[in-house]
Each structure stands twice: as C-alpha cells, then as structure tokens.
Design goal:
mainly alpha; DUF6628
Amino acid sequence: MAETTTLAAVLPHMLPACPHARIALFAIRRMGAHGLADARATHTLFTMFGQDFRRPLVLMRALMADLASHASGQIAIAPCCCARMTVAEAALITILAQLEIAPQKARFLMVDLLGIRHVDGVLASAAAVGAAFADEGRPISY
C-alpha cells in the first residue's frame, strides 16, 4: 500500500503570529532559495527597517551563509508563498526568538538542525540577527 504525504506532514507548523518573525522567515526563504543577494529579501528588510536596514540585512546574510556552510545535510525551506513552515524553519525561528531567554533550548535545536555538535559560531550569528531586530524595536517572538 502506497503511503501518501500530506501537507501537514511536510509543513507541520503554522506561520508565527509575530509579524517580525514572518519578515525574518521571508528573508530566510528568499535567501535560501535565491541566494544571499536576493533583491526581494533586501527590499523587504529595507522597507521594514528604513535607513537602518543594513545591519539586519548583513547579519541575516551572515547567518544564512553560516547555516549553509555548517549544515551536515539539507535544511528544508518552503516557498515564500507557503502559509505553513517546515520543521527546520520552525526550529530556526524558535532559535531566533528564544536564544536570549532559553540558550540551552536554542543550542539543542541548532545541534539538531545542523547535525553537528559544535554550533557556537552559528549560534552567535543567530544571536546577532535577533539582537539586530530587537535593537530596532522589532523583536522576533514565536
């Protein structure tokens, strides 16, 4: 008997209610699918942060580069238009949202996401992204 894959199995998580987390997710999806220099991701962060867009943009690019270079396998991302999240996306948004308040939880999630034991550098990149959003009055929550 053939097993069918449902949408809920592939994309088990709802989008975050926080608009700042949704913007971060959009940037992650665009950069993950179209490269670090994606114009739509840049425009979205420019629109959200105004003249202070450079810090969140550069740090998001650095995080995406760190994730790509350290992951032991593929990190599943959904298309930008998807109204649900993959397990990996939910883990990444949770990391960004809770790194400051629950660092051990964030570490476990990052270890699981990347499939490696030493994740300090990537966690530092994630902390910098979270701080950049929070410093501009747009903290990521999930």
